[in-house]
Amino acid sequence: MDFTFTEEQQAAVEAARAVFADVAADGVPSPALTPGAVADDFDRPLWARLAGSDLLSLVLAEEHGGAGLDAIALCLVLRESAKVLARVPLLEHCATAMAVQAHGSPELTAALLPGAGNGSLVLTVAAHGRSGHDPAELAVTARRDGAEWVLEGTQTAVPWAQSADWIAVPAHTGEGDAVLALVARTACGLALAEQVSTNGERFAELALDGVRVAATHLIETAGAWESLRQLLATGTCALALGLGEGVLAMTSQYTSKREQFGFPVATFQAVAVQAADRYIDLRAMEVTLWQAAWRLDAATAGAGGPLPSSGDVAVAKIWASEGVRRVVQTAQHLHGGFGADTDYPLHRYHAWAKQLELQLGPAAAHEEALGDLLAAHPLA
């Protein structure tokens, strides 16, 4: 079997590295020193460079102006973005665009995908429910009213909702699978309340009070929301991996230069063992990530496995949540007091790591889901 990435996927990585090369992780005020959000908007100049490099249209089909690549390619780009803490809604935007492309009506794809591909429209998704712990599709109800649907409910922690043009909102009808509504940020009956994430970014609580959505802007395809949720979780694992790799590289550089008793601390056995353990964490995060991303792409192509793809996604998120936490904690320890200096970017990585650890459920939640899945699908 050939486990190397394709030429197209490797080209996407090179393009991403070129775009992110000049991004500074400490380009905005520190979340540790800022009472509210670190900025009112995401990094628009970086967003424009992503659009100009065709990275926003990476996963769109050629008829929509894209390169037609897959979830693996998206995860490769996300991995690079996290190494520099890129402040853009790349995961939410691209994942939502993929869901619209796969399941949306012709009217919806025509309205959103061209703008999504060139960056003139920004997409995000409400994926955390009312509290961040309950299923997102149960937080909002959808009922049909003639040629429209009416949405009622609340979603919390919606990334960059104030800056997005369209928000994907999962909802339930009381029967069957969840539906997915694409709601304009300016829709009548939609209210946004200010929230701030763990890493200092601007989030919002979404309150939907009789929001009306045209039938063409609502996706009823069975499994559409579940597929999007799994892609978001897998993309979060890619972000955690990239962040962890960036932190371990930062730690390696610091411990190679910092001396005690006339020797670099990196040569001390206790330091080397801790760094090696975190390297093992990163390799486990990597292999489970690519397994999950491959299963998502295989499921899209109609291929199956002994367990549904949600099992592979759960395993990847367990490793990502636990692994990225251990990586940043060890990095703080090996940096000593310097790691707590707010003029040094490590504390920013720690805040982002905590956000990614809990995003779409901590390890314990995915362990419980994996246990239920194994009980329902006993392996021969």
Task: Explain briefly what this protein structure is.
The protein has 380 residues and is of the alpha+beta class.
Characterize the structure shown.
The chain contains 10 helices and 10 strands. It has 380 residues and is α+β, with helices and mostly antiparallel strands. The strands form 3 sheets. It has a 4-stranded mixed beta sheet, covered by helices on one side. The protein has a 4-stranded antiparallel beta sheet with strand order 2-3-7-6, with no helix packed on it. Helix 6 (224-257) runs antiparallel to helix 7 (269-300) and helix 8 runs antiparallel to helix 9 (346-358).
Which term fits the overall shape?
globular
Spatial strand arrangement across the major sheet: 1-4-5-8
Rg on CA atoms, Å: 21 Å
List low-confidence stretches. none
Helical residues, percent? 40-55%
The tally of strands reads 10
User: How much of the polypeptide forms β-strand, as a percent range?
Assistant: 15-25%
- Determine the number of helices (DSSP H or I, runs of at least 4 residues): 10
Q: Quote the distance from N terminus to C terminus.
A: 24 Å
Whole-number average pLDDT?
95
Largest sheet: 4 strands, mixed
Oligomer: single chain
Structural class designation = alpha+beta
SSE pattern: HHHHHEEEEEEEEHEEHHHH
